[in-house]
Amino acid sequence: MGLIEVSGLTKSYGAKQVLRGIDLTVDAGEIVGILGPNGAGKTTAVECIGGLRTCDGGTITVAGADPATEPPGFRLLLGMQLQQCRLPAKITTAEALDLFASFYPDPVPTGELLERFGLTAQARTRFEKLSGGQQQRLSVALALVGRPRIAILDELTTGLDPAARREIWGYLRDLKAAGVTMLLVTHSMEEAQFLCDRVAIIDDGLVVAEGAPSELADTTVQQQTSFALDPEDQPQHGVEELLDLLRALPGVHSARVIDQASGADARHAGSAAGPGAAARIVADGDADSPQRILSALIEAGVRPHRLRVVQPTLDDAYLRITQEQE
């Protein structure tokens, strides 16, 4: 049994069915990312898991409890950060942290949170005077002030600069090392790839793909190998013959010439590279295709210049999976 177990979760708003049977398991100590297009049902799903909404059907178990009934102690083990944090306009940053800390038996000291989330200089600043990024950092700090066993974080780094985002990522990794389980809703593929042990992609109210970020990238997206041909070192039979050679290799799915100035595909080397320019070849294939392509080039007497192999990313996998759903 996972620390969080969701089975057949459904939820409708009027005639619109937002969740159509979500199944999800999160083990203790995991960070699981929830990805998906806008309106896919991500926030509704985590709000049901956190007990903020009641589901229409299915079952949810969080640490052995049904969040809909909110048994005593449930709120002590769960911290939630929602998409938008709205506090009284006049409350200061330190006052908000002190207030939330008073709800828990062993909270994180306010000074420690202010320092860790880069808010020390804003300790006496009213909420209405905080920037959007500062409000977001405060929202995350409030979710973690009670030392939760489980944290549900919805778009936690929206509006943050790269330095602040990396600082929060580091803090979350420290929490994971301490055994905190996290459910992370994000649109940032970089964030998911950096933090998450597994991701679940929700589209149209269903989980359409699930797995480790690297596994999803490797199984759904092709490797891309590209190289330039020096005009003085063209293959004996021309670029088109070289493309045919690459396309015939096992594991190579496509090969083409691109216009290096615009990045657009071109059918023939002449249209891709002007007089004196170097043609650039791009080939897509499986995980073993780069080695096969390089071996074929050596056998053909072709010296590739500026050889580049692009590994598939979670961003590529996400786009392909959601486009297939469409």
Describe the structure.
- There is one protein chain.
- The chain has 326 residues and is an alpha/beta fold.
- It folds into two domains: 4-211, P-loop containing nucleotide triphosphate hydrolases (Rossmann fold); 221-311, Alpha-Beta Plaits (2-Layer Sandwich).
- The chain contains twelve helices and 14 strands.
- The strands form three sheets. The protein has a six-stranded mixed sheet, with helices on both faces. Strands 12-11-13-10-14 form a five-stranded antiparallel sheet. It has a three-stranded antiparallel sheet with strand order 2-1-4, covered by helices on one side.
- The model is unreliable at 261-276 (pLDDT under 50).
Secondary structure elements and pairings:
Blueprint: E1 4-13, E2 16-26, E3 31-35, H1 42-49, E4 57-62, H2 74-77, E5 78-81, H3 93-101, H4 110-116, H5 132-144, E6 150-154, H6 162-177, E7 181-185, H7 189-195, E8 198-203, E9 206-211, H8 213-220, E10 223-229, H9 239-247, E11 252-258, E12 265-266, H10 269-272, E13 279-285, H11 289-299, E14 305-310, H12 314-325
Helix pairs in contact: 3-4, 8-12
Instruction: Specify the helix fraction band.
Output: 25-40%
Q: What would you report as the Rg, rounded to the nearest angstrom?
A: 25 Å
Q: In sequence order, what are the helices and strands, one letter per element?
A: EEEHEHEHHHEHEHEEHEHEEHEHEH
What is the total number of structural domains? 2
CATH class of the largest domain: Alpha Beta
Strand content: 25-35%
Total helices: the number is: 12
Number of beta strands: 14
Distance between the termini: 33 Å
Within CATH, the superfamily of the largest domain carries the name: P-loop containing nucleotide triphosphate hydrolases
Round the mean pLDDT to the nearest integer and report it: 88
Q: Which structural class matches the secondary elements?
A: alpha/beta
Q: What order do the strands of the largest sheet run in, or round the barrel if closed?
A: 5-6-7-3-8-9
Pick out the low-confidence regions.
Answer: 261-276
CATH topology of the largest domain: Rossmann fold
CATH architecture of the largest domain: 3-Layer(aba) Sandwich
